[in-house]
Amino acid sequence: MFRYNFDEVTDRRNTCSEKWDGLMETFGSDDVLPMWVADMDFRSPHEVVEAFAERSKHGIFGYPFRSESYYEAIMEWVRVRHGWEIKREWIVDVPSVMPGLAAALLAFTSPGDGVVLQPPVYPPFFEVTESLDRRVIHNFLKFDGSWHMDLEGLKGLLSSAKAFLLCSPHNPVGRVWSEEELSALSSMCAKAGVPVLSDEIHCDFVYRGYKHIPIASINHEAAMNTVTFMSASKTFNIAGFKNAYAIVPNPAMREKLSKVLQGLHFGSGDLFGILGLEIAYRHGRDWLDELLLYLEENRDLAVSALRATGVGVVSPQGTYLLWLDFRKLGMSQEELMKFLINRAKLGLNDGLTFGPNGAGFARMNIGCPRRTLEEGLHRLTKALS
After folding, report:
1. Roughly how many angstroms between the first and final C-alpha of the chain, as a whole number?
2. Phi, psi of 326 (to 5 degrees)
3. Which of 341, 316, 318, 340 is nearest to 329 (CA)?
4. Whole-angstrom distance, CA of residue 348 vs CA of residue 364
């Protein structure tokens, strides 16, 4: 029996929502059902909403301050949810994960340096790397019915790389990397002197039977060669308030990253992002546990319905994202996106933005009430029939 009503449908239009109010700009139509941007259509935990409302009554919104209680909440969350004992001095404040990753690239690489990515992967990985005049090195994921790292192929790439960007759990394919994969990857990068910059923002979205392992928690060698990025924003659906943190056990790496962040002068952070993290980490565990069960039901429903239409999909081990394979339709990517927008009336992420091996694919967000998901699946089934 759910304590929280994840079936509730809330109208998000005209709320400055990129996902719902940005349809015309992105898809050329406001008549599509948005199942793209990776935020959820669920209300945040009521403790978080109430804390925001109460703080708003104060009426003064000056520069914020992160108390020791804030950092204690992070340490407790990482220890309880992910089995990793971290120290206060390891935590570095960042405005959000991607600016943090950009700062890390500035800290540990130079223009022209190679940066290894594992496509298909989160599009901003490419955008940040290329915008900073670094060179993308593709270490494509392998597919044999499920998705795997190409560790053998990675061996020949690290000699020309200065950083490795890891997505864990992986967006968009939904893999929760095993300890064996992470250990092998970490060892290879450490031996090559290539720091691992690990985006673990989806770490709290892992389904039963799987466990997220922070790569830096594998062993001392991994810890000394990794910068880990986490945030409460994805987990508790408060991404509109920018706030995240890096965990950097290596003092020399921490000093380099902190120096770049200081130079960029990101400031003291987002007041409500800071407040939201502490309240959510201290009071949102039951909400998250129920949410994961609900999302698991969404996942199973969607995978079953999609397979019945002939669309290829691997059931994700984590995240609330599905990586849909439409290659059997024999369409070009442009034709596929037009089909999804004009025939299916769906707003999905274009697979090609996730890398060259994303051609023929699209990403679907199932972080929504059941009724919304069923409507999206109905539209796609009808368009394909």
Report:
1. 36
2. -105, 15
3. 340
4. 6
Q: Say what the pLDDT of residue 1 is.
A: 60
Mean pLDDT of the chain: 97
**Per-residue model confidence (pLDDT) at position 22:** 98
Please give the model's pTM, rounded to 2 decimal places.
0.98
Rg (CA), the chain: 20
How far, in Å, CA of 71 to CA of 92, rounded?
A: 10
Residue-wise pLDDT tens digits, 326-343: 999 999 999 999 999 999
Q: Is the dihedral of CA 232, 100, 319, 384 positive or negative?
A: positive
The closest alpha carbon to 328, from 314, 341, 315, 309, belongs to 309
Do you know the residue count of the chain? 385
Residue 120: asked if its preceding bond is cis (omega within 30°), the reply is yes
Residues 73 and 281 sit within 8 Å (Cβ to Cβ): yes
Q: Which domains does the chain have, with CATH numbers?
A: 18-45+285-384 (3.90.1150.10), 63-283 (3.40.640.10)
Contacts of 53 (CB under 8 A, 6+ apart): none
| pLDDT over 90 percentage in the chain | 98
- What is the crossing angle of helices 285-309 and 370-384, to 10°? 10
